[in-house]
């Protein structure tokens, strides 16, 4: 994937997306929003002041910029529970079960302390170390959602080393799975789809797999910036992949990724992910960075 981060058709599709549906995000992904029902989260505390009051059943918009504002407050006060809440609400959208799940996550006493420890590790050792610190640390909080927390915390923390965290969820993993299958077919691997499913499962990714994703996203962003008017912002690529801007599947590989229902940023929390052993050379990648706004 480092040697071939994006094929020509991907560069064309992503460039077209940026000129069309993605145009509002050309200067930053902050306006990317999801909708939630405030009253559905009435029992969640401490509720971030930057979010709408927890009353009313009218769908309310919550943007990345609003969640980032909560994260910046968290960085200033060294308290991170509200950032987890805001990022979780944004990720779940209007799914009815989200508030119950979040309540279960927040119930154990040391959640705030564990979040602060993870951000401290992120600030000193980088995104992958922060990911490793949160893996399995908080009951019921899997990678699909603690990655979102790390993403916003990573933007708020000044001078954290290495690449900033990026969101990885089920939908993006399926795009990467499709592209890995395609690469495997092109180089003549046996059962490339099976290998790709092993590498890019729907959830439960190891810290190594997350590192691979960050490195690939940086290389792919550099490629796009050199070929189109794409800005040096890997989180814009993340948003484009989530939005279905590029379908890596050949016609023989089944349904389009964009045909997979995805009403919100909510993603599966299940599915094991393999370790680093036995990974072919075309899955190894280089460093990454991001510049969200």
Structure description:
With 293 residues, the chain is an all-alpha fold. Helices cover 47% and strands 3% of the residues. It contains eleven helices and two strands; from the N terminus they run H-E-E-H-H-H-H-H-H-H-H-H-H. It has helices spanning 8-19, 64-77, 81-92, 98-106, 111-125, 127-134, 143-156, 170-186, 192-199, 207-227, 234-242; strands spanning 33-36, 60-63. A two-stranded antiparallel sheet has the order 1-2. Helix 3 packs antiparallel against helix 4, helix 5 (111-125) runs antiparallel to helix 6 (127-134) and helix 10 crosses helix 11 (234-242). It is globular. It starts with 7 loop residues before the first helix and ends in a 51-residue tail after the last helix. The relative contact order is 0.17.
Taking the sheet with the most strands, its summary is: 2 strands, antiparallel
| Mean model confidence by pLDDT | 86
Q: Beta-strand level of the residues, as a percent range? A: under 5%
Shape: globular
SS field, number of helical segments? 11
* SSE-based structural type: mainly alpha
Ends apart, CA distance between termini:
27 Å
Total strands: the figure is 2
- Compute the gyration radius: what is it? 18 Å
Q: Would you identify the regions where 5 or more consecutive residues have pLDDT less than 50?
A: 251-263, 266-293
**H/E series:** HEEHHHHHHHHHH
């Amino acid at each position: 994937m480092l040697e071939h981060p994006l094929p020509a058709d991907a560069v064309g599709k992503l460039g077209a997306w940026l000129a069309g549906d993605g145009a509002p995000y050309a200067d930053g992904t902050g306006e990317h929003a999801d909708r939630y029902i405030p009253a559905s989260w009435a029992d969640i505390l401490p509720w971030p002041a930057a979010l709408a009051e927890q009353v009313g059943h009218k769908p309310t918009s919550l943007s990345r910029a609003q969640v980032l504002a909560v994260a910046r407050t968290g960085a200033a006060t060294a308290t991170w529970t509200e950032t987890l809440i805001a990022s979780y609400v944004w990720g779940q959208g209007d799914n009815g079960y989200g508030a119950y799940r979040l309540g279960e996550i927040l119930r154990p006493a040391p959640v705030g302390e564990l979040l602060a420890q993870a951000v401290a590790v992120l600030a000193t050792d980088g995104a992958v170390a922060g990911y490793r610190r949160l893996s399995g640390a908080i009951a019921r909080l899997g990678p699909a959602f603690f990655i979102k927390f790390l993403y916003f915390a990573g933007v708020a923390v000044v001078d954290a080393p290495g690449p900033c965290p990026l969101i990885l969820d089920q939908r993006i993993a399926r795009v990467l799975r499709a592209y890995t299958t395609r690469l495997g077919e092109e180089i003549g691997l046996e059962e490339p789809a099976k290998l790709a499913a092993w590498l890019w499962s729907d959830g439960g990714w190891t810290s190594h797999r997350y590192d691979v994703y960050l490195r690939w996203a940086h290389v792919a962003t550099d490629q796009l910036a050199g070929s189109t008017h794409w800005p040096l912002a890997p989180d814009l690529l993340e948003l484009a992949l989530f939005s279905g801007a590029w379908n890596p599947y050949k016609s023989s590989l089944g349904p389009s990724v964009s045909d997979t229902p995805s009403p919100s940023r909510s993603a599966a929390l299940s599915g094991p992910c393999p370790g680093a052993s036995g990974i072919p050379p075309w899955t190894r990648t280089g460093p990454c960075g991001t510049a969200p706004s």
